[in-house]
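Entry for the shared binder. Reason: the reviewer on the internal report wants the predicted structure included alongside the sequence.
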Amino acid sequence: MSCCERVQIKGNLYFTISEIAESLQVMKEVTVEDMSWNESVRETNHSTVTEFIFLGLSNSQELQIFLFGFFFVFYVGIVLGNLLIILTVAVDSHLHSPMYFLLANLSLIDLSLSSVTAPKMITDFFRNCKVISFKGCLAQIFLLHFFGGSELVILTAMAFDRYVAICKPLRYNTIMCSNVCVGIVTAAWGIGFLHSVSQLAFAVNLPFCGPNEIDSFYCDLPRVIKLACTDTYRLDIMVIANSGVLTVCAFILLLISYTIILTTIQHRPSERSSKALSTLTAHISAVLLFFGPCIFIYAWPFPIKSLDKFLAVFYSVVTPFLNPIIYTLRNKDMKTAMRRLRKWNVDSRVKS
């Protein structure tokens, strides 16, 4: 039997060599088509995630109603408190100094930072499905790191301002002149922008093809990265290096600065040292409130879900609420300026 003759394949079925070759060719073409189809499906799946779902703070309807009232009051306090500080510093000429100029910028950043997450969190308490679009999620990441990076620089600048005022009082007006203050604020916003862009670059090109539930009430880079359909170990390391190490280094630098300032205060007359210590206490409190949650969120290697949610709430809502209280209740100049502002407002109403 020649190679062109029929070949017997189990039982009474007979095929020619050419028919077998044709069948193999068809199978090859089908396999190639299947591979191409699977590849296209895989590419399509990478772009199928168009929105993310927040799991929120609680599934209990009763608790969500309570949380709505609680955070609504907090957010109103954030808006009114920080706007009051900005207005008081802008209107009262007695507060036109470097320290209060930086304080007004800190209040503006706190107001902006809380407004990135708090309004949506508050409205989501009445929604069964807490959804945010993919672009909206990226926008939250960008704005959070933009304002967060700017606040880090402002707090560092405020520590430097107190260092110059207490340790080099005779050169204070020369060192902390208006051009230097404007330059510091410009640098703060610029560094915040660069930091935010570098963070967003990690997430914008990640493939998302399946899970889209975020166990939080807002988008942040460490949580979003975990949903990507790729190995994110290196990205996690880069995020820690970018945000975590930066935060820890700045915090250590601030601790060293405030230690030097406190040591200097001990050798000053009691009246001056008490006033400086009161101002310094407010600054240290603000630093601890800001850097504490940041270090645990971005640099702590053993995250705990329940603790992460608490720190996220503290970072985005509680800290911006407490900062105005800290800087007004412990600052005699601010309280005096607010009384003058209130008196001026009452007088203007009486005249009208």
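Summary line for the report: Strands lie at 7-8, 14-15, 51-54, 130-133, 213-214.
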